[in-house]
UniProtKB/TrEMBL annotation:
Alphabetical list of NCBIfam families matching this protein: acyl_WS_DGAT
Pathway(s): Lipid metabolism; Glycerolipid metabolism; triacylglycerol biosynthesis
EC assignment: 2.3.1.20
Keywords: Acyltransferase, Glycerol metabolism, Lipid biosynthesis, Lipid metabolism, Transferase
Every O-acyltransferase WSD1 C-terminal domain range: 292-436
Domain O-acyltransferase WSD1-like N-terminal: from-to ranges: 6-249
PANTHER family: O-ACYLTRANSFERASE (WSD1-LIKE) FAMILY PROTEIN (PTHR31650), WAX ESTER SYNTHASE_DIACYLGLYCEROL ACYLTRANSFERASE 4-RELATED (PTHR31650:SF1)
SUPFAM superfamilies in UniProt: CoA-dependent acyltransferases
Domain of life of the source: Bacteria
Enzyme class: transferase
Family: Belongs to the long-chain O-acyltransferase family.
The protein's name in its UniProt record: Diacylglycerol O-acyltransferase
Length: 443
């Protein structure tokens, strides 16, 4: 294992973290247990297998490198931990009756920075028929796809395609290679133009914003999570009737559920069209490297104020098509790419300011996490449900993550526990919205 400097976006995630807003991803996997001791056995397996997964032994350490080109000030490196004890990262908990409630409390705890930033918590079910594993991976260590690969490496062996290795990078030199200067200049000018386009789009996206106080929150550091499981066949039925993609339908379901939820709680949905950030992976399929984050995004206005469920879906489809035509490298949703234009020291000094600015850029995160269709098992126990969970940005009360797995759609909702005490009502509204769309689409 070798060390490498964090990419700019990784460094941004590392530096915008605060005690009230930890920047880790989560995933709650529910397994069918074949015995009351299956959870304890799963914890033993996770600890034993973690030793053999190189990515799980990587810690993040601050570095200063003035004698390389370009000089590096205020950066951090991802490197093997000198001492790695898997028992520091895998914990078996007491039996529980509610996996989501326990995972919510665990979600609010920041990961310790002095060791590899990940954890696995095994939650046995009180009835002995199931157990859950709650994974946490810091966003500076992995994006959603990379985190999935790390977690899958701890499951029972399956035949998976080998990831394509990343070509070895040449060592840094004290001086630039003069032969590459013309290309570097052209690339820099192109990057500057792209940054200006993104900045202009962000400014335009803030005009005429009509969100809802229910989606904002003062930092409390508390977390509540909820999970919703839907039939993927129902989603395909709607998609075939109206058109678009599965992801279009899943986003429209969020818009409709927000409408129902806001109206029920008395906040009202009239005129509400919050900005949703839709992350887009820039990682090539079957590529394990490079580590860290390779993300851009799309920004759309969720048509919460539209009373017609089919109209909401068509509005989402139009907005997503417009974003796809423009591509993931331009537009307000590509704001993550601006991290590439900030020097490491700027990330370190400006991290707290950037963290507080998230509320100005978007109102809610709606992210899709790809999962393999393989039947994953742990200790012979099949994985039945998996709920992805996204970090909560400062000033925001709600984040939504969604995945499809073996014929089911799983929504993972993360909320500030004090700002959204009625998260269960929003979860129920997601199920109701799918039923509403099916009825609206007709036979």
């Amino acid at each position: 294992m070798t060390s490498d400097l964090l990419a700019p976006l990784d460094l941004a995630f590392w530096n915008i973290e605060s005690a009230q807003h930890p920047m880790h991803l989560g995933a709650l996997g529910v397994f069918t247990a074949h015995s009351p001791t299956a959870g304890a056995h799963a914890a033993d397996l996770l600890a034993a297998r973690a030793v053999g997964v190189p990515g799980l032994r990587m810690r993040i350490r601050d570095v200063w490198q003035p004698l390389v080109y370009p000089p590096t000030f205020g950066s951090a490196t991802r490197e093997p931990a000198p001492h790695f004890d898997p028992l520091d990262h895998v914990r078996l908990h007491a039996p529980t009756t509610d996996f989501h409630t326990d995972a919510g409390r665990l979600m609010e705890r920041p990961l310790l920075r002095g060791r590899p930033p990940w954890e696995a918590h095994v939650l046995p079910g009180e009835d002995g028929t199931s157990f859950a594993v709650f994974f946490k991976f810091h966003h500076a260590l992995a994006d959603g796809l990379r985190a999935l690969m790390l977690a899958a490496a701890l499951m029972d062996p399956v035949d998976m395609p080998e990831p394509r290795p990343r070509p070895a990078e040449p060592p840094r030199s004290l001086f630039p290679d003069v032969r590459k200067l013309p290309g570097l200049v052209r690339g820099t000018l192109s990057d500057v133009g792209r940054a200006l386009d993104i900045g202009t789009s962000v400014a335009r996206a803030t005009l005429g914003v009509r969100s809802s106080p229910a989606l904002t929150s003062r930092p409390t550091g508390t977390r509540r999570i909820a999970g919703v499981s839907l039939d993927l066949d129902d989603v395909h039925r709607v998609r075939k009737s109206v058109g678009g993609t599965v992801n279009d339908v899943l986003i429209a379901v969020v818009a409709g559920a927000l409408r129902t939820w806001l109206d029920e709680r008395g906040d009202g949905s009239e005129g509400v069209a919050p900005r949703a950030l839709i992350p887009v992976s820039r990682r090539r399929p079957r590529t394990a490297q490079p580590q860290g984050n390779r993300l851009s995004g799309y920004l759309i206005r969720l048509p919460v104020d539209d009373p017609d469920p089919v109209g909401r879906l068509r509005a989402v489809r139009t907005a997503m098509d417009r974003n796809k035509d423009a591509g993931p490298n331009r537009g307000a949703g590509a704001v993550a790419l601006l991290a590439d234009h900030v020097p490491p020291l700027g990330h370190r000094l400006g991290g707290p300011v950037v963290g507080q600015a998230a509320r100005l850029l978007f109102d809610i995160l709606v992210t899709s996490v790809p999962l393999p269709s393989l039947g994953l098992k742990l200790g012979g126990c099949p994985l039945a449900e998996v709920y992805p969970l996204a970090p909560l940005a400062r000033g925001q009360a709600l984040a939504v993550a969604v995945s499809t797995f073996r014929g089911r759609v799983h929504y993972g909702l993360v909320a500030d526990a004090e700002a959204v005490p009625d998260l269960h009502r929003l979860a129920r509204a997601l199920t109701e919205e799918v039923e509403t769309l099916i009825i609206a689409c007709g036979p």
